[in-house]
TrEMBL record:
<keyword id="KW-0820">tRNA-binding</keyword>
<comment type="similarity">
    <text>Belongs to the RNase E/G family. RNase G subfamily.</text>
</comment>
<dbReference type="GO" id="GO:0008033">
    <property type="term" value="P:tRNA processing"/>
</dbReference>
<dbReference type="GO" id="GO:0019843">
    <property type="term" value="F:rRNA binding"/>
</dbReference>
<keyword id="KW-0819">tRNA processing</keyword>
<dbReference type="GO" id="GO:0000049">
    <property type="term" value="F:tRNA binding"/>
</dbReference>
<dbReference type="InterPro" id="IPR048583">
    <property type="entry name" value="RNase_E_G_thioredoxin-like"/>
</dbReference>
<keyword id="KW-0699">rRNA-binding</keyword>
<keyword id="KW-0694">RNA-binding</keyword>
<feature type="domain" description="S1 motif">
    <location>
        <begin position="37"/>
        <end position="130"/>
    </location>
</feature>
<keyword id="KW-0963">Cytoplasm</keyword>
<keyword id="KW-0378">Hydrolase</keyword>
<keyword id="KW-0255">Endonuclease</keyword>
<protein>
    <recommendedName>
        <fullName>Ribonuclease G</fullName>
    </recommendedName>
</protein>
<dbReference type="GO" id="GO:0016787">
    <property type="term" value="F:hydrolase activity"/>
</dbReference>
<dbReference type="GO" id="GO:0004519">
    <property type="term" value="F:endonuclease activity"/>
</dbReference>
<dbReference type="GO" id="GO:0006364">
    <property type="term" value="P:rRNA processing"/>
</dbReference>
Length: 498
C-alpha cells in the first residue's frame, strides 16, 4: 500500500492530507486565526474549585477557563505551583490518587497545566498536570520514573532492547515513552532526542518561574513541523508540499530530527493545485455531508451532536440478487468498512452509536462485528467497541482531542440555529391566523398588514387564500400581505392600521 502526506500551505491556512492508495484517509487543518491549543503548556491560575464535581476551573489566558479533573492533578510538594506529569510520579510529589480536589488546589493558586483536549463547542479546554513533551522518537514525561514502549512495536526483542537503551542513557527520575517510529532508531538518535527534550523542559521551567500567570510557557509545533514528528511514520513513502517556504522549513526540521527522511520530501510546483490534482478537494467536500453513498447503492447517514454521534445504515437503491438476508448482510458489511473510514477521516469522537440493519442470522452478526473491529485497527485514536446487540446496534467510544471535521469547516445555520429544521410555511401561516384572532378585539382599524417572508406570502395568497378570506369575514378586517425579503422565514410583523 502506497502512503503519501500532502500539504497545501497558504498564508491563511495549512491543510494536511494523508493519502493511502490514492484515497484520502486523514485530513487535518490549521488556520492561523483558529490555531489549535492541544499540547500547549500554560502557567495558569486556579479561579474556582468545585468539590461537588471534583474538578477546578483554571485561567490560562483564554476566553474560556480550562477544566481540570482531580485525576489529572499532581502537585509537586516542594514547589506548589509546579506540576509533574503522572499520578505514579516521584516521591517528591503529592499523588492525586485518593485525594479530593479541595485537598490539592486552592483558588488563586498558580499551576502548570497542559491542554489535552481543545475547546469543543461551548466547552473550554480540557487540562492536565501530566505534562508530556513529544519529539520524533521519544515522548518526555518529566519527574517520573517510567519507561514506556509503543504498543505498536510488537517484536518483544526490539521492545526489550529499546527499553534497555533508554534505561542506560536517561537521567534519574526522568520518564520516556518510545514512539512507534523509533522501532529502528539508533542509540545516537535516541540520545539526540533525549538531549533536546531535556533542554526544552529546562526552558519551560525557566519560563514558568519568570512569567506571571496566566501565560503560555510552551507552544506546540505548527502542523507543518508536526507532519514529520507525528504523521511521517515508517509506512509513509513521501511527503509533498506546495509551498517553497514550508518546504525549506521541513528540510531544516528533518535535517535535525529525521535526516533519513530528507529524500522523501518533495516540493510541488505544477500549475494544477496539489489537492485538485489528486482529487482531495472533492473528498473534503464529501466529508462534510451527512449522507455517504456506498458502492452497492446503500448509504449511511451521519448525525453528530456535541457529545454523541449516530450513524444509520440503509439499503437505499441496493436490492440484491438472492434474498433479503443476503442483501442486508452485504449492505452492513460494506457499511462497516466505510464507517471505520469515515470515523477516521472526519475525526468523529466521543460516544458513537451505529445502527446497522437488523440481521437474524447469528453468524452474520458475528462476522459483521469482527469485520468492523478489524477495520478500525487502522485508526490511531484509542477506541472501545461493545458487542453488536441483537437490535443491530454497536456502541463505541473514540478518543476526541479536538473538533471534528464538520465542526471545523461548518457553522450552525443562521436560520435554524443548528436544529436542521425550521417551522413549515403552513405552520407559520396558522401562527399568524391565531395571533390575529386573539388580538382582533383590541384593534380599532379596518386593515391589517402582514410583513412576511416572500415564501410565506406565496402560501397566504395561494394555498391558504380561502382560509385568509374566511378570517377577513370573521374579523371584519381587510388583510394585506406584504412580502419582505429581509425577514427570516419564521419571522413576521402584524401591523394594525387605523
Amino acid at each position: 500500500m502506497s502512503t503519501e502526506i500532502m500539504i497545501n500551505a497558504t498564508s491563511y491556512e495549512v491543510r494536511l492530507a494523508l493519502v493511502e492508495d490514492g484515497t484520502l484517509s486523514e485530513f487535518h487543518m490549521q488556520r492561523h486565526t483558529e490555531k489549535g491549543l492541544m499540547g500547549n503548556v500554560y502557567k495558569g491560575k486556579v479561579v474556582r474549585v468545585l468539590p461537588g464535581m471534583q474538578a477546578a476551573f483554571v485561567d490560562i489566558g483564554l476566553e474560556r477557563t480550562g477544566f481540570l479533573y482531580v485525576a489529572d492533578v499532581c502537585v509537586a510538594s516542594d514547589s506548589p505551583e509546579l506540576c509533574s506529569c503522572m499520578t505514579d510520579c516521584a516521591n517528591t510529589n503529592i499523588k492525586a490518587q485518593g485525594l479530593h480536589i479541595e485537598d490539592l488546589l486552592t483558588e488563586g493558586q498558580d499551576i502548570i497545566v497542559q491542554v489535552n483536549k481543545d475547546p469543543i463547542g461551548t466547552k473550554g479546554a480540557r487540562l492536565t498536570c501530566h505534562i508530556t513533551l513529544p519529539c520524533r522518537n521519544l515522548v518526555f514525561i518529566p519527574l517520573t520514573d517510567h519507561i514506556g514502549i509503543s504498543r505498536k512495536i510488537e517484536d518483544e526483542e526490539v521492545r526489550e532492547q529499546l527499553k534497555q537503551q533508554i534505561e542506560e542513557i536517561r537521567p534519574d527520575n526522568a520518564g520516556f515513552i518510545v514512539r512507534t517510529v523509533a522501532e529502528h532508531a539508533t542509540r545516537e538518535e535516541l540520545e539526540a532526542d533525549m538531549e533536546f527534550l531535556m533542554l526544552l523542559w529546562d526552558d519551560v521551567m525557566d519560563r514558568a518561574k519568570n512569567l506571571p500567570a496566566p501565560a503560555v510557557i510552551f507552544e506546540d509545533l505548527d502542523i507543518i513541523s508536526r507532519s514529520i514528528r507525528d504523521f511521517f511514520t515508517l509506512d509513509v513513502d513521501k511527503l509533498i508540499i506546495d509551498d517553497p517556504a514550508g518546504h525549506k522549513k521541513l528540510l531544516q526540521f528533518a535535517e535535525t530530527f529525521a535526516p533519513q527522511l530528507l529524500d522523501k520530501i518533495e516540493l510541488y510546483d505544477e500549475k494544477i493545485p496539489l489537492f485538485e490534482a489528486h482529487n482531495i478537494e472533492a473528498e473534503i467536500t464529501r466529508a462534510t455531508e451527512k449522507k455517504v453513498w456506498l458502492r452497492s447503492g446503500g448509504y449511511i447517514i451521519i448525525e453528530s451532536t456535541e457529545a454523541l454521534s449516530v450513524i444509520d445504515v440503509n439499503t437505499g437503491r441496493f436490492v440484491g440478487k438472492k434474498n433479503l438476508n443476503d442483501t442486508i448482510f452485504k449492505t452492513n458489511m460494506e457499511a462497516a468498512i466505510e464507517i471505520a473510514y469515515q470515523l477516521r477521516l472526519r475525526n468523529i469522537g466521543g460516544i458513537i452509536i451505529i445502527d446497522f440493519i437488523d440481521m437474524e442470522d447469528e453468524q452474520h452478526r458475528e462476522t459483521l462485528f469482527n469485520t468492523f473491529k478489524e477495520a478500525v485497527k487502522k485508526d490511531k485514536s484509542r477506541n472501545n467497541i461493545l458487542k453488536l446487540s441483537e437490535f443491530g446496534l454497536v456502541q463505541m467510544t473514540r478518543k476526541r482531542n479536538s473538533e471534528n471535521l464538520h465542526q471545523l469547516m461548518c457553522e450552525p445555520c443562521h436560520y435554524c440555529s443548528g436544529e436542521g429544521m425550521i417551522k413549515s410555511r403552513r405552520t407559520i401561516c396558522y401562527d399568524i391566523f391565531r395571533k390575529i384572532s386573539r388580538n382582533v378585539s383590541r384593534a380599532k382599524g379596518s386593515t391589517i398588514t402582514l410583513r412576511v417572508h416572500p415564501r410565506i406570502a406565496d402560501m397566504l395568497n395561494e394555498e391558504e387564500e380561502l382560509t385568509r378570506t374566511r378570517l377577513e369575514e370573521d374579523t371584519g378586517k381587510r388583510i394585506i400581505v406584504a412580502p419582505s425579503k429581509d425577514l427570516h422565514m419564521e419571522k413576521y410583523e402584524i401591523i394594525w392600521q387605523n
